[in-house]
Design goal:
alpha+beta; 4-stranded mixed beta sheet; two-stranded antiparallel sheet; 2 helices
Amino acid sequence: PNICGIRKENVKLLLNATIENVEDAVTEVASRIQQVQKGQETFFIYYHSGHGNEFGTLYFPNRENRVRSRKLQDLLKESGATKSLFILDACHSSSVQVYTMKG
């Protein structure tokens, strides 16, 4: 079955993740994206549900595992997707700077 119109094999769900888990997942997805025929549009969606602070730091899932939102955005850019969507469901998510990434 599809999840929001996306085939299940193209969804990577991480529970109680660390930044290392996220980096590994992005690397895995990036390798799939790079296999898509040139000229076809690819879309990378990142959804973070967790904690955050007013300085743009996100936590996985506790305050011992944290990362700056900019590092996550850089990871998404490195995925090679033609379009990316970065969704934050965290306290102080409005403090995260929005960047337009063009591929």
